[in-house]
Every structure is written in structure tokens, then in C-alpha cells.
Amino acid sequence: MTVTRHFRTCTLCEAMCGIVVTTDGDRVTDIRGDKDDPFSRGHVCPKAVALQDVHEDPDRLRRPLRREGSSWVEIGWDEALDDAAARLKAIQAAHGRDAVATYSGNPTVHSVGAMLFAPDLMRALRTKNRFSATSVDQLPHHVAALLMFGHALLIPIPDIDHTQHLLMFGANPAASNGSLMTAPGVMERIRAIRNRGGRVVLIDPRRSETAGLVDAHHFIRPGTDALLLLALLHVICADGAPRVSQYAAYIDGVDALCELVRHFPPERVSGQTGIDADTIRSLARDFAAAPTAVAYGRVGVSMQEFGGIACWLISALNIVTGHLDLPGGAMFTRPAVDILRADQRSDRVRFGRWTTRVRGLPEFAGELPVAALAEEIETPGAGQVRALLTHAGNPVLSTPNGQRLERAIAGLDYYVAIDFYLNETTRHAHLILPPTFALERDHYDLVFHALAVRNTAKYSRAIFPKPADARHDWEILNGLTWRITGTLAARTKSLALAQLTPRGMVDIALRQGPYGSGLSPVGTGLRMKTLDDNPHGVDLGALQPALPDRLRTADRRLQLAPAMFLADVTRLEATLERAEPATGELSLIGRRALRSNNSWMHNSERLMRGRNRCTLQMHPHDADARGVDDGEDVRITSRTGSVVVPVEVTNAVMPGVVSLPHGWGHGRAGTRMSTANTHAGASINDLTDDQRLDTLTGNASFSGVPVRVDRIGIRHSHPQA
Ligand SMILES: Nc1nc2c(c(=O)[nH]1)N[C@H]1C(S)=C(S)[C@@H](COP(=O)(O)OP(=O)(O)OC[C@H]3O[C@@H](n4cnc5c(=O)[nH]c(N)nc54)[C@H](O)[C@@H]3O)O[C@H]1N2
Ligand SMILES: Nc1nc2c(c(=O)[nH]1)N[C@H]1C(S)=C(S)[C@@H](COP(=O)(O)OP(=O)(O)OC[C@H]3O[C@@H](n4cnc5c(=O)[nH]c(N)nc54)[C@H](O)[C@@H]3O)O[C@H]1N2
Ligand code: SF4
Ligand SMILES: [Mo]
Fold first, then answer.
1. Which of 51, 56, 13 lies closest to 32, judged by CA?
2. Does residue 617 or residue 583 have the better pLDDT?
3. 302 lines ligand 1 (CB under 6 A)
4. Which of 94, 137, 285, 322 is at 20 to 30 A from 157, Cα to Cα?
5. What are 102's strand-pairing partners?
């Protein structure tokens, strides 16, 4: 056997760490950080080694499975793809295009093949009922980017390597490794801000792992960031003119924003936010006074009732203090494959062109809010969803009111899943199409290079050849596309694309990109060969100012105060009159852990070792009031359901707030994940509510779900799942 070292990028989270995978023949013998990767410089987290665990997992599906009665039967690929296409087409023929719904999960964004081939399948299906994990995650960030800068993907990235002041809202990079901010070794980069005399401030209802490493952490009541941000902007506008002269030639809405925030002095919001007026004033003044500064928010602000406003105002804060588009501020990337450039009609506003049938929730970029999926399946009438295709998603555990969705999915006429686990969602499928896993396929990060704190490019080759009887995600998608379209032209195109492969497509995109060699074979500049010659990756430099050129608004102007956001403030303002929570009511928020990745890595024995992580964190005052002891099981009840988990009494959560991680709840019958099933935990999304939304954007509102917690009196001396 030969020992080989392979250089690659880890695809599990957004950090894009370079890894060295050592193999001996067909076995992985070691995975570690690649010190020669110019971006990650050797950093990895404990999840990197789990790439091996998933790769070798005997529970991972390798061949298509068809349900026959109550059992699963392995079938061949052609039969499986023919069958899936025929069933989906038949349902569309009988009930209309929209009778088939699709759901794309988070890992599709980490797969170059899925990114390149899913759009064609969506065009073939032509259904309006397209859903994805976007609407349980970052949708408000996209809406803000679209309305302010003209493109959903034009999200400003915090230039953390050059800033002197980082103000974070609702992000926990110590667990998540950074999000909408690809920055391998993010905590070292954040520590470096303080080491060079800068300041890091965190706003979070939980004193998170990140809070231990910042200069100041402030508790905030869940879901009230938008109010805090209005008050921060109030202080800045009241203290003097906003510093927007550098944007003068192309900015609109400065007066409208200042007029709006005039009505939100700190005193008006301190009760709701739980942050006193003096603290709000000094937060604003410290931020405005810093030589370079950047405000940044992540899921804590986008998964809430006013996520759209909150994401808008974070950018507004960067703009009125003059920190947008300057080193050390919020910057735009210049990725080697420019996804904006590929999007020819980027300045067309793709928001609200149609709405969901039952609740009238808005479309965004061709997708509808997934919180509406269950009711679209359950509600009879024209356009009712009767079939579902999921791709790399587990919506039963990841979307609000998962139990309702699960009941709805179980009643579908047809459900096909592209996934390699038989999990809480896919167990309801009629057919499962399992693709290859990461180590068997090439990779180029189309999305995360575009969201990174530094411009870099890297191409990862597959480490193992694709097993004989296996298909990549892109091959499955391509196979479905031509079968569903059913024309000779579609078949010819699919053969041509299969010939080209994602690698060939990335090569073309690199050549056509901003650093590219062009399509001529003799051109100099970036192309696939450059990346092949540099297997650790290529550094393309720090983020550079890019405005106004990069703007994609129809009039090429920066919109500081988009009308839709201004109008939505009325809805926000009404919350100032909201009554105090009912006695005994607690406010539920989520949590992420470093050694866990959404719902799908709990089958790795190595990651699951140690104490039970699916615990309800509760403040000692709230525990005392209920007579609950640390380690004891409690019942959590919300409008939608109830679950039982052990309690962890800790003053790391704000009084009145309780925190439960998402992605658990593996105890359901009929799944095939032996390790996960022994660490089942309970699903927070059995408690979250499909009716609680940011109605402006359609994103689920997970933060601040009202719950009751009751003692049930079972004690575990050593909490263990
Ligand atoms: N280890 C690990 N890494 C991951 C993932 C994972 O599951 N595990 N998931 C990946 C994915 S898909 C994503 S999207 C990213 C997410 O990346 P992050 O957003 O950094 O992830 P979280 O750890 O959920 O941090 C959100 C924080 O918001 C806080 N919060 C909750 N409600 C509110 C609120 O109302 N206001 C404020 N200000 N804060 C609030 C929570 O307490 C929490 O600390 O992480 C990615 N990385
Ligand atoms: N309450 C609450 N709910 C949340 C969150 C929260 O913070 N709180 N976070 C939300 C966020 S940010 C996200 S992104 C979503 C994630 O939600 P989803 O994307 O729905 O779920 P995942 O848990 O990421 O499941 C991914 C699925 O993809 C499969 N998979 C992995 N890799 C591949 C691959 O290469 N190809 C294919 N075909 N399948 C693959 C896995 O087996 C698994 O079934 O959850 C959301 N839900
Ligand atoms: S931080 Fe993310 S990309 Fe880096 S090793 Fe961990 S999971 Fe992989
Ligand atoms: Mo996410």
C-alpha cells in the first residue's frame, strides 16, 4: 500500500480550513490542518477528523433505496432515476407544476456539483414551491443586501484582520467558526484585534463561548436587536451629522434614516432590550469613535421576528459611521469565480414576485419561506403540494414546528430524497438517492470564497475515486433533469455537461473571473492549472474598496433607507407597547456546539464523546423559581409541542431566557444512524412555531419562542443522552 498526502479544503462549515489527509491505500490514516494553506495556516477544529467518520460510516447509504411496504430495497441507478423522474412528472401532469415542492439543505452550498447542477433541475421542474434552509437562516441578510446594494449575495464582510473595533450581534464564532464571514481560525483573528489594542464587543442573550474572549458582553432580550440598533443610530445621528461624505455621490436615504431614528432614543428601547440607556450611548460612541470599526450580525439577528430590520440597520450603522467599504470596516469581496458576474440579470429585484398559496408569504430569489411548507402540503385546493424532493436537508429537525411538517411529509403521494442518511426526514421517502461524500469528489468553494475575509482560491481534488456503483450529487441532479425535461435537447445538454464536469465548469469560470486568464489557451492569469500547481491554495490579497462599481441596484445607488424597511418599522414599534411576558413564561433561544454540525454529524462516535450537549440552559433564578436542580429532566412546552430534556443550571443565560441546541431529536423509529440514535436528544424545532416569522422577509423566528418549563422530577447524577 502507498501512503499519500492529499491537500484539500474541509467542507463541513464555512471556515474553509485547509487540511492534509493522509491515506494508506483506500484508508484514511490521518487528517490535520495544512500549515501551507495561505488562508487557514494550519487551523482546524475537532470536526475535521469526522470527515473520515462519515466517509467510513457503515450507516451511510451507498446505493438507491426504494421503499417497498415497510422495508427498503436496494435498486440500480437507472431504475431509480427513471422511477423518480416518472413519478414527479406524473404528479405534475395530473395536478400542475406546483404540486411538486423542493427543499435544498445547507450542505448543497458546500458542494460545487450541487451548486452548478441544481439550477437546471429547478428549471426543469418549474415549480413555485421551492424551499431551502435559507429561510431558517440568513434570508434577512440577503434581503438587506438586495435592497441596499442591489444583489442578494452582495453581503458586506467584516474585515476582521484590519479592524480596531468589532461589534458582534448574535454570532458565536467560537462554536460556529464564523458565518457570512469565512475566516479560518476566526478566534485567533478576533484575539488579534485585542492584541493590537482594538476592542471586541458582543451582544447576545447568552454569555457564549465567544463572550469569554471579548472585551465586553451585553445580554439582550431575544428578538430586540432591531430596537437596540435604532437607538444606536439615534445616538450617532443626534451627536452630529452622519459621516457619509465618502458615499455622497451615490447614496440615497440619509435624511430618511436620520428622521426615522430620531424617534428612538435609548430610553425608549432600554426596557424591551434589557440594556440601559447609558450603555447604549457608550456602545454607539465607542463604535463611532474607533479609527476603524465594523458591526456584524449573524443567526441571532436573522432568526428573529425583525430579522430584516436588524440586518438592514447593522449595515446602516457601518455606513453612517463611515465604516463601509474601507479596510477594517465592512467590505465587499472580489472572488476568483464571481457569482455576481455570472448572474447576468443581477439588478432585477427578485423579491415578492409571487407569494405562498395559503399564507401569502413572499418569494425571494425564486424560493418561498419553508415555514409555509407544511400548510402547503396539508391545505387542499389547486396548487396543493403532493410530492417533495429534498436535497441534502433534514427539515423535520431543522425547520419550525418540525412535527407538523413531519406529519405532512408522511402523507405525501411521493417523496424522493437525495441524501446519504436514512434520517428523521428521509425515513419518510419513497426513494432515497445517496450521493458520494466529500472525500470522493472534487471541490471548489463557489459560495464561501465570495464571503471570505480575504480573497483566495483553492481547488481540492477527490481523494478517493468514485466507487463503481456510486453517483455524485451533480450526476444525480443531471440525470433527473434530462429525464424530467424529456427532450432530445435536454439529453444532449446533459451529456455535454457530464463530459465537461464541474471541474471544467470551474475552469471556465476562473478564466472569465476578475483574475482570470481569459478563454484563450495562452492567456496568463488564473485558471485551473494555476490551482493545480498550487494545491494549498492561492492568496489573492486583502479585501479592497469596491464601491460604487460593485453596486447592483438598478440606478447604481446605495440605498441607506429602503422603503420596505422603513415601512416595517411600524410593526416593530408596536412591540414597544407589548405587555410583559406572562408569569412563568420563558424565552427560548438556540445554541451551537463546536463538535456538532446542524443535524447530521451526530453519527460520528468521536464527536459524540463526552457529556450530553442537548441540555436546556437555565438561569439559577428561573431554576429556583421552579424548584429545578441541575441535571434534572424538565418538560418544555410551547404552543406547538413539548419535549423532555435535562436542565443545565447556569448564569451564562440571561434571566428569563432558556437555551436548547438545534439538530437533535434522533430517537425517531425507522432511522438508520446507530450512534446518533444512542445520543438522541430532543428537537428544539418541536417547540418552535411555523406561525412565528419575520413577516417582512419570511425567515423563521427561532429567537424568543415563549415556553413553559416544568419540573418532572427525574434526576440524572451524570447527565448523559
Ligand atoms: N460547530 C458548528 N459550526 C457551525 C454550525 C454548527 O451547527 N455547528 N452551523 C453552521 C451554520 S449552518 C451556520 S448558519 C452558522 C451560524 O453561525 P453563528 O451565527 O455564529 O452561530 P450560533 O452559534 O448559532 O450563534 C448565534 C448566537 O446568537 C445568539 N442569539 C440568539 N438569539 C439572539 C437574539 O435575539 N439577539 C442576539 N443578539 N443574539 C441572539 C445565540 O445565543 C448564539 O450565541 O454556523 C455554522 N457553523
Ligand atoms: N431552532 C433552530 N433551527 C435551526 C437552526 C437554529 O439555529 N435553530 N439553524 C438553521 C440553519 S442555520 C440551517 S443552515 C439549517 C440546516 O438545516 P438542513 O439543511 O435542513 O439540515 P442539516 O442538518 O444541515 O442536514 C443536512 C442533510 O444533508 C445530508 N448531506 C450532507 N452532505 C451531503 C451531500 O454532500 N449531499 C447530499 N445530497 N446530502 C448531504 C445529511 O445527511 C443531512 O440529511 O437548520 C436550521 N434550523
Ligand atoms: S472550522 Fe469548519 S472548515 Fe475548519 S476544520 Fe472545522 S468544520 Fe472544517
Ligand atoms: Mo445555516
1. 51
2. 617
3. no
4. 285
5. 130, 389
Q: Which fold has domain 65-134+349-486?
A: Rossmann fold (3.40.50)
First to last CA, the chain: 40
In terms of Cα–Cα distance, which of 415, 344, 445 is closest to 66?
415
pLDDT of residue 720 exceeding 50, the answer is no
CATH 3.40.50.740 residue spans of the chain: 65-134+349-486
CATH 3.40.228.10 for domain 155-176+186-331+554-571, yes or no, is yes
* Secondary structure of 375-394 in HEC code, one letter for each residue: HHHHCCCCCCCCEEEEECCC
Q: Supply the residue whose CA is at minimum distance from atom 1 of ligand 3.
A: 45
Q: b/e string for 562-600 if b means 16 or more Cβ within 10 A? A: bebbbebbeebeeeeeeeeeeeeebbbbbbbebbbbbbb
The verdict on the CB of residue 421 being under 6 Å from ligand 2 is yes
Q: Hey, which of 103, 172, 599, 660 would you mutate to test ligand 2's pocket, going by the most ligand atoms within 8 Å of its Cβ?
A: 599
Closest ligand 3 atom to residue 12 Cα is 7
CA of 108 to the centre of ligand 2 (A): 9
Average pLDDT for residues 349-363, to the nearest whole number?
A: 93
- Ligand 3, pocket-test mutation among 44, 182, 606, most atoms within 8 A of CB: 44
Give me the pLDDT at residue 721, please: 40
- Ligand 1 centroid to Cα of residue 94, in Å, is 42
Phi, psi angle pair for 80, to nearest 5°:
-65, -45
109 in contact with ligand 1, CB cutoff 6 A: no
Mutate to test the pocket of ligand 2, among 11, 12, 103, 106 (most ligand atoms within 8 A of CB): 106
- pTM for the full model? 0.97
DSSP state of 296: E
Per-residue pLDDT tens digits for 140-154: 999 999 999 999 999
Kindly state if the Cβ of 110 falls inside 6 Å of ligand 1: no
Exposed, middle or buried by CB within 10 Å (0-12, 13-18, 19+), for 212?
exposed
> Per-residue pLDDT tens for 477-514?
999 999 999 999 999 999 999 999 999 999 999 999 99
Please spell the DSSP secondary structure of 578-600, one letter per residue: PPPPPTT-EEEE----TT--TTS
CA distances from 681 to 57, 616, 719 (A): 21, 11, 11
User: Which atom of ligand 2 lies closest to the CA of 105?
Assistant: 19
Nearest ligand, CA 659: 1
12 lines ligand 3 (CB under 6 A): yes
Extract the C-alpha cell encoding 329: 470596516
CA of 636 to the centre of ligand 4 (A): 24
In this structure, which residue's CA is closest to atom 29 in ligand 2? Answer: 392
- Domain 579-715 sits in CATH 2.40.40.20: yes
Q: For the chain, where do the domains classified as CATH 2.40.40.20 start and end? A: 579-715
Measured distance CA(496)–CA(606) in Å, rounded: 42
| Helix (H), strand (E) at residue 492 | helix 488-512
Q: Looking at residue 451, what DSSP letter applies?
A: G
Cβ 182 under 6 angstroms from ligand 1: no
Nearest CA to ligand 3 atom 6: 45
Q: How far apart are CA 88 and CA 395, in angstroms?
A: 20
Is the distance from the beta carbon of residue 48 to the nearest atom of ligand 3 less than 6 Å? Answer: yes
| Beta-sheet pairing, 100-104 with 130-132 | parallel
